[in-house]
Amino acid sequence: MKKLHAAFLLLMMPCLGLSASVRTTSYPASVRKMNLQPGDTVCIADGIYSDVRVRFLGHGTPEAPIVLRAKTPGGVTFA
């Protein structure tokens, strides 16, 4: 059980603001205007988003990818 909690915390760290380059948005289309750098994490606020196209420019690296994720796992639906 402790391993499960540790894994969960590691997955949630970027969205909890424990990383230096975390951005949270309620407007997925706004990701395109962000100046994303290697290691950045973008958290999309929970919700159902209809007719939205998420585009972003940026170049991550294998060591520091650009991560796009839901604020909470399973909390974002694109319909």
Can you walk me through this structure?
The structure is a single chain. The protein has 79 residues and is of the alpha/beta class. The chain has one helix at residues 2-12, and strands spanning 22-25, 41-44, 47-49, 67-70, 76-78. A 3-stranded parallel sheet has the order 1-2-4, with no helix packed on it. Strands 3-5 form a two-stranded parallel ribbon. The longest helix is centred in the first third of the chain and has 11 residues, at 2-12.
Task: Summarize this entry quickly.
The protein is an alpha/beta fold and 79 residues long. The protein contains one helix and five strands, in the order H-E-E-E-E-E. The chain has a three-stranded parallel beta sheet with strand order 1-2-4, with no helix packed on it. It has a two-stranded parallel ribbon with strand order 3-5.
Tags for this model:
79 residues, alpha/beta, 3-stranded parallel β-sheet, globular
What percent of residues adopt helix (DSSP H or I)?
A: 10-25%
Structural class: alpha/beta
Q: What low-confidence regions span 5 or more consecutive residues with pLDDT below 50?
A: 4-10
> Please, how many helices?
1
Shape: globular
Along the chain, the helix and strand elements come as HEEEEE
Mean pLDDT over the residues: 80
| Strand-residue proportion | 15-25%
Rg over alpha carbons: 13 Å
Distance between the termini: 34 Å
Strands, count? 5
The side-by-side strand order for the widest beta sheet comes to 1-2-4
Largest sheet: 3 strands, parallel
